[in-house]
Amino acid sequence: MARPQQVSDNEILETARRCFLEQGPSVSTDVIADSLGVSSQALFKRFGSKRDLMLAAIRPPAVPPWTASLEAGPNDQPLRIQLAAIVEEVSVYFAEMARRMSLVRWSGVPIEDLLREYDPPPPQIGIRALAQWLQRAHHQNLIRETDFQSVATALLGSLHAPVFLAEVLQQKQTPQARKAYVTEVVNLFARGLEPHT
Q1: What's the rounded Cα separation, in Å, for the pair 52 and 85?
Q2: pLDDT at 197
Q3: To 10 degrees, the CA torsion angle through 189, 72, 180, 96?
Q4: Is residue 13 exposed (0-12), middle (13-18) or buried (19+ Cβ within 10 Å)?
């Protein structure tokens, strides 16, 4: 008798995430299991229920992955170049998170159930990481003295707003439109943060 295929929790979650995002919350666990070459029972043994599997698959990471880029900087490049890289990475992340949150709303699961285990929640971690990056940028004379927490909140809010509106209005932003928006956000914040001469 052939031994069942061994798959890691990470492989299960990645496959489940793809299936849920492509087919919605009603996708059968059989579809997910077939994609992995395992039985539905194997999924239930590890995650308990389809609802628990979905929440585990689409839950945002506890620490937004783009914060790692912030911890490495700032560097000696001009502020606009560094801001452009940050804003691009964050805007792509927010677009992915918006898709996941739409799936949660569609499934009927309260968002609070998804975020309950975080302390602090990922948005607060992101704001704090960006505020610290801005403060270090000030110490390197890349930007002027400011309320770094407020600027971080405003910058991240400006990236979250179009994604949220696109999801609410069911109007997907084209890659060209997103790039143009990112460029405007970078220009606006770079001008506003320029050191006083």
Answers
A1: 35
A2: 62
A3: -120
A4: middle
Q: What is the pLDDT of residues 160-184, one digit of tens each?
A: 988 888 776 777 767 778 889 999 9
Residues in CB range of 158: below 8 A, 6 or more apart: 185
pLDDT digits 0-9 by tens, 44-75: 999 999 999 999 999 899 999 999 999 989 99
